[in-house]
Amino acid sequence: MDALKKTLEYDPYLDKSKTEDELARMKTDEEANIIFARQDYWLKDGITMNLDREKCYLAISAVDEFLGKAETKLKRLYPNLARADEELEKKIVGEIEKERSESESGLGMIFG
User: Fold this and answer.
1) Quick count: other Cβ atoms within 10 Å of Cβ 70?
2) Could you tell me the residue range of the domain that residue 6 belongs to?
3) Could you read off the pLDDT of 46-91 as tens digits, one per residue?
4) 14 in a domain, yes or no?
5) pLDDT 10s digits, 68-78
6) 18, 16, 54, 14: which is closest to 38 by C-alpha?
7) What's the distance, CA 58 to chain centroid?
8) CA 112 to CA 110: how far, in whole Å?
9) 68 lies in a domain?
10) Structural Rg of the chain based on CA atoms
11) Who contacts 21 (Cβ-Cβ below 8 Å, separation ≥6)?
12) 65 lies in some domain
């Protein structure tokens, strides 16, 4: 999960070790511009959601064009990665919405 987390957090345009030439070449590299850090994503261990404790679950909220390219990139980087079936996707999205709702509610009590 640590390697995946680093991939998700990495923004090559903020990488101070990149030279100007590398940054210029990246502008035409479609895969280099699949930057997860600029998307709304959610990564959780299965155990925290009462799911398979041996797995982690990733949900990405982005435009369809990005999602297709992102799935291809992730599968290349992490061959064991697999998309969840529709039923599991719905459960995970429900957990995300529940967590966000509870978080927003908590902030309302603090600042409201």
Assistant:
1) 19
2) 2-84
3) 998 888 999 999 999 999 999 999 999 999 999 999 999 999 999 9
4) yes
5) 999 999 999 99
6) 14
7) 6
8) 6
9) yes
10) 17
11) none
12) yes
